[in-house]
Design the sequence.
């Protein structure tokens, strides 16, 4: 009985995903591009780096990179703490 | 984890240096070509996984020590935070070395150009700090899981 | 409909991930399902920022006279991939400790907290 309810719920969710994937905006035409046009025009003059993605990650949005480095450090601390009582 | 045959160990000895050099190339040229700190750190950590798999988890303790990796990871994250605080005269994370003239300070030619390594300001230094942190973090995760796996194996009838 | 093929691929990723989370009982398979959902969402973020006939947003030796793809979703996907690594590492470590204490990986028998 539980299996039938799970199967019906999964089929409803799968059809919802497929209908919204087919009816989405055409692939290749984004609508709002003002911020990215500013980045492509002025990133080379202001930061001096040729790579626009790296200058966004480390210069225009460096605070997100700080948060991400902290998340990676916390994950390593968690893994070391889980295997702490293991002796030879 | 048991060790593998002689052919695998010889090839792993030979390829290990090339993978390390390729990973450092991706980290250092992060402001000119696609790549950067995170991608180069992940490529370099796969070299440590190669040594661990081909030599077994008992023999590879002579080459890869966990304490040195842990020290480098803390050092990399502290260096990144110090570089972020060093531009505090104007704002947090300010790129005060770009177009300045001394260290990584040339101005880039506008438009399509073959890359000049001396540009970028604070971005190559941040790339190296984050690359050092990511490669040490992934090395620590792989080594600790290998030690834990040989501990949780059930006792076999010998 | 054949033009939207990347979005249909993302829908298949997320659907397979949710099927694995709902119907399987082994803990390692559940970890694979979580990893599938995360990577499907990362693919969706990248395919949202594509312009027809454009090149990568890098000025070193680029072909001249073409416009470039939007660079901001690529920068945000980098952060999301690293968070996926952290989640997968922690979920696999917890699965290893459960196997050490209970001797099995079946979720129907790992139930000592109940009742």
Sequence:
């Amino acid at each position: 009985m539980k299996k039938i309810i799970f199967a019906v719920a999964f089929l409803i969710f799968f059809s919802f995903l497929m209908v919204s994937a087919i009816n989405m905006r055409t692939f290749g035409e984004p609508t709002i591009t003002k911020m990215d046009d500013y980045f492509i025009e002025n990133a080379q003059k202001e930061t001096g780096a040729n790579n626009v993605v790296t200058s966004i990650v480390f210069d225009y949005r460096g605070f997100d990179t700080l948060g991400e480095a902290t998340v990676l450090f916390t994950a390593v601390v968690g893994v070391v703490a889980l295997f702490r009582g293991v002796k030879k | 984890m048991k060790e593998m045959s002689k052919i695998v160990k010889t090839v792993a000895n030979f390829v290990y240096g090339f993978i390390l050099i390729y990973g450092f190339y991706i980290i250092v040229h992060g402001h000119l070509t696609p790549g950067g700190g995170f991608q180069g750190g992940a490529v370099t950590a796969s070299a440590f996984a190669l040594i661990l798999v081909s030599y077994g988890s008992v023999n590879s303790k002579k080459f890869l020590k966990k304490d040195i990796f842990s020290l480098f990871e803390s050092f990399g994250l502290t260096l990144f935070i110090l570089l972020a605080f060093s531009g505090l005269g104007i704002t947090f994370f300010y790129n005060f070395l770009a177009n300045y003239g001394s260290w990584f300070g040339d101005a880039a030619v506008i438009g399509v150009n073959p890359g000049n390594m001396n540009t970028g300001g604070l971005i190559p230094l941040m790339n190296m700090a984050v690359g050092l942190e990511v490669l040490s973090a992934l090395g620590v995760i792989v080594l600790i899981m290998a030690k834990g796996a040989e501990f949780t194996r059930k006792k076999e009838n010998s | 409909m054949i033009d939207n093929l990347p979005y249909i691929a993302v829908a298949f990723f997320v659907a397979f991930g949710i099927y694995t989370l709902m119907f399987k009982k082994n803990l390692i398979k559940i970890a694979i399902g979580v990893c599938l959902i995360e990577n499907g969402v990362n693919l969706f973020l990248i395919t949202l920022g594509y312009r027809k006939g454009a090149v990568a947003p890098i000025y070193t030796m680029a072909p001249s006279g073409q416009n470039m793809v939007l660079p901001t979703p690529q920068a945000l996907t980098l952060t999301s991939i690293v968070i996926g690594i952290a989640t997968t590492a922690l979920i696999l470590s917890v699965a290893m400790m459960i196997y050490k204490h209970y001797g099995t990986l079946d979720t129907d028998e790992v139930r000592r907290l109940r009742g």
